[in-house]
């Protein structure tokens, strides 16, 4: 697996753990370390999308938990968490992206689910829990 994909996957797993309700100093420290390592320090914890977030990728209404951008090895990628009180955050996020021209494949795993959406430019993977969603964005290969 390409190193960039490993880093993005590590951030995704850490963020999904946060969305799932894991807490404590150990998790927080691990997440901060993984995000900093994966993004080279381009991290937003202030409720805004990270620098360079593609304008044609909408996110659902809610509170932005953190965002990170990765631009190593000539590639770009972003990770963003959104906490929301929507009844079905994954479905809402998928619907918003489909309305923006993305096509989707969705899989449910217990209370969590995953949707992979693409358009001609971007690949978006959304991991959802009842509390919110995690977006992982990369260019289409």
Automatic annotation (TrEMBL):
Protein name: Secreted protein
Biological source species: Cryobacterium breve
Signal sequence residues: 1-25
Keywords, in A-Z order: Signal
Taxonomic classification: Bacteria, Bacillati, Actinomycetota, Actinomycetes, Micrococcales
């Amino acid at each position: 697996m390409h190193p960039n994909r490993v880093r993005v996957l590590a951030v995704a797993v850490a963020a999904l753990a946060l969305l799932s309700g894991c807490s404590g100093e150990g998790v927080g420290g691990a997440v901060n370390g993984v995000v900093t390592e994966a993004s080279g320090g381009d991290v937003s914890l202030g409720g805004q999308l990270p620098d360079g977030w593609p304008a044609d990728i909408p996110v659902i209404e809610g509170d932005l938990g953190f965002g990170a951008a990765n631009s190593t090895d000539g590639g770009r990628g972003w990770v963003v968490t959104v906490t929301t009180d929507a009844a079905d955050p994954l479905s809402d996020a998928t619907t918003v992206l489909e309305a923006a021209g993305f096509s989707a494949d969705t899989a449910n795993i217990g209370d969590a689910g995953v949707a992979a959406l693409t358009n001609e430019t971007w690949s978006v993977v959304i991991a959802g829990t009842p509390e919110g969603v995690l977006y992982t964005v990369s260019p289409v290969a």
